[in-house]
Each structure stands twice: as C-alpha cells, then as structure tokens.
TrEMBL record:
The keyword Oxidoreductase does not apply. This is Phosphate ABC transporter substrate-binding protein. PROSITE patterns: PROKAR_LIPOPROTEIN. Residues 28-260 form the PBP domain. PANTHER family: PERIPLASMIC PHOSPHATE BINDING COMPONENT OF PHOSPHATE ABC TRANSPORTER, PHOSPHATE-BINDING PROTEIN PSTS. InterPro entries: PBP_domain, Phosphate_ABC_transporter. It holds the Pfam family PBP_like_2. It comes from the Bacteria.
Amino acid sequence: MRIKVFGFLILMAALSCKKSLPIEEYHKGNLTILTDASFESVTQALADGYMMTYPDTKINVETKKEDHAFMDLLQRKAKIIVMSRDLNGEEIKEYERVMDLEYRPDRFAADAVVFVVPKDSPLQSISMDEIIDALHSEEKKLIFDGTNSSNLNFVAQKINKKPSDLKFSILSGNENVIQNLEKYPGKIGVVALNSFSRPYSKEAEELRNKVKILPVTVKGKSISPEILNLANMSYPFTRTLYFLTSEANFNMANGFIRFSCTHIGQMIVQKEGLQKYNLYQREVKMY
C-alpha cells in the first residue's frame, strides 16, 4: 500500500504499530547500494546519515553505471540501486515479472545534467538546438563521463534518441572531465550537478572554480540549473533521482529508502546542494 508521507513522527508511529516487523531487520545489518558515480556524493551522504542514526548498520556505496546496476538488480545481485533515467515499457515489465513487485520508483532528490566550459571560454550559454546539433556532429564537441553513464543516458532520453545514435567524446569520470576540460579547446563538458554541488566542500569548490556552467536557452530564454529552476523543473535537464529495490518486506533497503524521504534525509539532500524531493507530490511504500 502507498501513502503520502506527512512527517517523521507520523511515520515512526506507523512503523511501531507493525508488530510483525522486527526492528532489527532495518536498523541492524549490512547493505550495498549501487549508484552511478554522477550521484555518488548524495548517496554516500544519505548512507552516512543512516549509519549515524542506526549505528548497528553498515552501508557500502558502490559505483556502477546505472544500466549495469539495473541488470544486477534484475539478477538479484543487488538489493537497492539509484537511478535517474526513466525505465522504458519493456524494462518496467521485466522488473515487475522478475521481482513480482509493482514498479514504483522512490524519488528523493532533483539533480541536473549541466554543460560546462573553462572559465575563460567566450561561450555564455548553449541552446537546445546547439546541443542536438553537437550530438550529431563528427566534431564530437560534447565530452561525457563515459558510455552507459547516467548523464549520457539522460540526455539521450531527453532528446528522444538512443545513446548509440549520438556522437560524443569521452573522459572517464565527472571530475576528470572538469579537471581536464581546458586541455580540449572548443569542447563542452557534460557532467552531473552533484559532482560539484556541495556548497561546503573544499573539493567541490575547487572543481566549481575551474569551469563555468552554461545556461541552456529554451525559446529565447536562458535557464540556469539553480535550485529554484530545479524545484519547478524549468531547467530542461533537471532529473529526479530515485531508488529501486528487490526487497519486498521492510528490511534494511526499504528502511534506507524511508529514511531518505523523511525530513532528516531531505535535509541531507539539501546540504548536498540539490533540490529536496519533498516539494513534489510523491508516494512511498508502507508495509
């Protein structure tokens, strides 16, 4: 059954009424979460928060391209993964067949794919048409962090293309793209906002100081990936991050999902420099 989350206290009260669910099943034990490197930072921050709240838990955050993570989930090699792109109809059908669960993604944050250039670049913005043209040009002007990466998958889905139909350059890893972009004049990096969105991180600040983010022009209006534009989803490459799990009962994976959607979890998302999902209408699972 799905209910709307009204608050942390109501949630805890509801859980305490489920006497058939032993507390130790969600606050003791080990769990591995698979996440694309593009949103590893927010996933790790949530994992750290969960372990601080429940000291008898151990969460390992492992990076893996989201398509590969989804395959691991289907093969039951993973209990929980983080995704950004929407599954297609066939993928949803296969998930429901294998898991014997209804496909109901648990969304917890709004991130964005952003287009960056060195600080001294004359470019001030990029239009949707320019992005599409670049992805069909032999110049391979856009640099992504890898094939099968969440950034590439999301951009391809946004323009209704398959990643295999697009032309682009590759440097492995978001941070690597940012650190080395100045070596490739005329190129534009395509990275995750979460790779350098943490406002109080020295490492993130150093990355931010190396590049500038290009606003995306839509119908003559330039829109930056600022928090307000993520909240109203006016920035065209806003994406919502969500969890998928193979766990049918309220064990540690669903406990972590629940924690991430509570007020505490959403505060962690905000401290990561991302948009909290609790501004959007949402539903989560209650057992």
